[in-house]
Specification:
Length: 558
């Protein structure tokens, strides 16, 4: 594949939409893979078919409002991700119409809806991209069982990842590789990497008769029941068209691609983020990870030198596959209990501290600004994510990583089951990474990148007039400075919920004891063991000077 191919948008041509819908038909079930380029399921659905039904099912649990949730959105997703998905569906529908087709929107429980469509439309093939997420694994078993009993061919190719996780696990004797380097040795080069991917489709068979099935256009936020909710401007728009545009912009700077080195980068850059911001497009499959990988390989061939995995851009795609593989091969990967990879740690349970973190009320401007960005944009730089995850767990608050995972899972537009859980396991030092003495300071880490505090001033305007000497520790500003900045700490902006120096020492002490017990019992801790350790840690804490907490009721998210 030549770089010029990577930089161009897939070609699309119109086909006569009045073509008679007779003979064999296929259903193309879109879930992720919301794209035309490199979509083997869509390609197979159209082969030998007189008509194709491109279907997307609106699941009420995922899309419709939940008034009990802590942020606008449904029971399972925040409004930013729902909006990004709707934009992606509109873009997909537009692309399908250019090919002589359209996207058929149905509502209901996806399994029930698909089975009803299979019964009513009399198709010969059901095609959809394979998905390793537990939710889809269970759903797909139900649908496949019905299709097989009805004599319907099911085609479910692996195209969301570079490799098939099951193949990697099989090569490793039935177990997932637990380190990145072992994953690289097992995986090698993708089998498809040396051949051009299908990046354009000239036409698609038309949609057949939909019978009594109720079909609608892609709904708006208002259609879903969110009313005229005021939306924050977000610099990321969903859809394949936007994904390909961002990809083109990113890889056109060959020097930047060649020298990309994660985890370096500026987490405080928000006008122009210091990364590609392609993660949400990969999450929804608006961008094929395989296509992205081939484009990067073409860049690497045309430069004298470039970075390599694990720090290169291609290395980031391989990290993604690593987490997918480990998650797929590890029962209970998304929890501490019953997860053989996870250290058993008696995390604190404090709803007040969790709410302060979640609602940007910790009193640490660097942490709170990141959480405001998360609420408003549904995205933040990976080092910003590291900062707030460390603060919640092993750095300061010693709260359970599952609680933070739940917040990210709801609010991130790029929330991905395998990667989100894997990163929280890593950042809490529960698995993969165990150097718990290395902590992201909620004060000095952000200051290193943004000494003037411009990021904080943007997302926490209450602090916009605070002198840079105090912007990261506003509680240290003299009263006169606070009055001049129109920000009185404890009134206009909260005091710190904990003091970092003493809190981080406590966290390290607790983790040291938890690690020691895990080693002694070979990771086989019972609930009684955890309860006993928790009581011991609390007793030890009583013997030490108390960690001073400044708790107060403050206003809502600013």
């Amino acid at each position: 594949m030549q770089l010029s191919l990577c930089l161009s948008k897939p070609t699309q041509h119109l086909k006569n939409p009045l073509m008679a819908a007779s003979g064999s038909g296929s259903i193309m079930w879109f879930r992720k893979a919301l794209r035309i380029h490199d979509n083997p399921a869509l390609e197979y659905a159209s082969k030998g078919s007189d008509f194709v039904y491109p279907v997307f099912v609106i699941d009420p649990h995922y899309m419709e409002p939940d008034p009990k949730a802590f942020s606008p959105g449904s029971r399972l997703a925040g409004l930013n991700r729902i909006r990004f998905l709707l934009e992606s569906l509109v873009d997909l529908d537009t692309s399908l119409k250019k090919l002589g087709s359209r996207l058929l929107i149905l509502r209901g429980e996806p399994g029930q809806v698909l089975i009803r469509c299979l019964k009513e439309w009399g198709v010969k093939k059901l095609c959809f991209e394979y998905d390793t997420d537990p939710h889809y694994q269970a759903l797909d078993i139900r649908v496949k069982e019905y299709a097989s009993a009805a004599g319907i061919e099911v085609f479910s190719p692996v195209s969301h990842t570079l490799f098939n996780p099951a193949d990697i696990i099989q090569r490793n004797g039935g177990k997932p590789p637990l380190t990145y380097q072992s994953f690289l040795k097992l995986s090698g080069q993708p089998s498809w990497a040396s051949s051009p991917l299908l990046t354009s489709i000239s036409s698609l068979p038309p949609v057949g008769d939909v019978g009594s099935c109720e079909i609608s256009e892609v709904p708006t936020i208002k259609d879903l029941g969110y009313g005229d909710i005021e939306q924050e401007w977000i610099p990321f728009r969903g859809g394949e068209s936007e994904a390909l545009k961002r990809l083109k912009e990113s890889i056109s700077d060959k020097e930047w691609v060649a020298n990309f080195e994660k985890p370096k980068g500026n987490p405080s850059a928000f006008v122009k983020p210091a990364t590609t911001v392609l993660s949400p497009y990969l999450k929804f499959g608006c961008l094929s990870s395989r296509y992205f990988y081939q484009c990067l390989q073409d860049v690497y061939k045309n430069v004298q030198k470039h970075t390599s995995p694990p720090v290169s851009l291609a290395g980031q795609l391989l990290w993604r596959d690593f987490f997918y593989t480990v998650a797929f091969g590890t029962p209970n990967f998304d929890r501490m209990e019953g997860n053989k990879l996870c250290k058993q740690i008696p995390w604190n349970d404090d709803d007040e501290l969790l709410a302060a973190w979640r609602e940007a009320r910790t009193g640490y401007p660097w942490i709170d600004a990141i959480m405001v960005q998360l609420h408003k944009w549904g995205w933040m730089h990976h080092l910003a994510r590291h900062s707030v995850a460390c603060f919640l767990t092993r750095g300061d608050l010693f709260l359970h990583w599952e609680r933070g995972r739940d917040v990210f899972e709801r609010l991130l537009i790029d929330s991905d089951w395998a990667i989100n859980n894997g990163n929280w396991l890593w950042l809490s030092c529960s698995s993969f990474f165990y150097q718990y003495n290395r902590i992201y300071s909620p004060i000095s880490f952000g200051k290193k990148y943004d000494p003037n505090g411009n990021y904080i001033r943007h997302f926490l305007p209450v602090l916009k007039d605070m002198p840079k000497e105090y912007i990261y520790e506003p509680w240290t500003a003299p009263p006169g400075i606070q009055r001049k900045a129109k920000c009185i700490i404890g009134r206009d902006y909260p005091k710190p919920v904990v003091y970092h120096d003493s809190a981080s020492k406590e966290c390290k002490r607790k983790l040291a004891e938890a690690y020691a017990l895990n080693q002694k019992l070979n990771g086989q801790l019972s609930q009684e063991d955890l309860d006993n350790l928790r009581r011991k840690l609390e007793q030890d804490e009583d013997l030490e000077p108390k960690i001073r907490r400044q708790r107060q009721k403050v206003g809502p998210l600013t």
